[in-house]
Amino acid sequence: MKHIPERTCIVCGKKTYKYLLDRYVYSNGKFILDKDKKLDGRGFYICREESCRKKADKKFSSIKSRLERRR
Ligand SMILES: [Zn+2]
Predict the structure, then answer these.
(1) CB 3.0–4.6 Å: which of 3, 13, 39, 63 could bond 34 by disulfide?
(2) Is the pTM of this model over 0.70?
C-alpha cells in the first residue's frame, strides 16, 4: 500500500492527507499560498473547513510574531 503523507491543520489541529490541505509558506513577512507545491521554506497547512479558513489570518499573525521573535 502506498503511503499518503499526512499533515496537521494549524488551526484545528486535525491531521489529514496532505492533498486535502492548502499549503502556505512564510516568506518575507508574508504567508503565501503555495498553489503548485513548489515553494521553498517552512510550510503551514490549513484544511478546507470554512471555520479554519476564517481563523487562518489570525493564526498566521500569531505564527508570524512567534517567528519574528526568534530572530
Ligand atoms: Zn482545520
Answers:
(1) 39
(2) yes
